Amino acid sequence: MGTINPGPLGRKVSITMIEVEKGDSLVESGRLPAPHILKIDTEGHEPHTLAGVKSTILEGRPTIFFEHISLSDSEVRALMPEGYKLCTVSDQTGELVAFNRKVGHNSAFLPQKI
């Protein structure tokens, strides 16, 4: 866990620069192979994260797991790529079930045969 807030007075703070790239750029350049599974936990930034791998999703059709706590039901459904099915990961059993927030805090987009 990290923060961008300065540390309390008298406490040493170090700054680390992190280079951020779109997943599509990494795959298109050949620096990383297209993934078969994506796991996203970006605390409400899932829409931006998925936008950065749009081409990878359309071409490779990976299974996508993500935390839905910070998203409304309509936001979750709006994120679902065409040709995918929405499921919830059960917190109790790990099974994939029909989308239901009461069952778990993670969801999955499963590619369907087209």
What characteristics describe this protein?
5-stranded mixed sheet; 114 residues; 23% helix; 5 strands
- The Cα radius of gyration reads 17 Å
String of helices and strands:
HEHHEHEEE
Structural class: alpha+beta
The main sheet comes to:
5 strands, mixed
Uncertain regions spanning at least 5 consecutive residues: none
Find the count of extended strands (DSSP E, 2+ residues).
Answer: 5
Number of helices: 4
- Molecular shape: globular
Please give the order of strands in the largest beta sheet.
1-2-5-3-4
Q: Please report the distance between the alpha carbons of the first and last residues.
A: 39 Å
- What fraction, in percent, of the residue positions are helical? 10-25%
Mean pLDDT across the residues is 89
Plain-language structure description:
The longest helix has 7 residues, at 54-60. A five-stranded mixed beta sheet has the order 1-2-5-3-4, with no helix packed on it. It has four helices and five strands; from the N terminus they run αβααβαβββ. The protein has helices at 23-28, 46-51, 54-60, 73-79, and strands at residues 37-40, 63-67, 84-89, 96-98, 106-111. Helices cover 23% and strands 21% of the residues. With 114 residues, it is α+β, with helices and mostly antiparallel strands. It has a domain at 37-111.
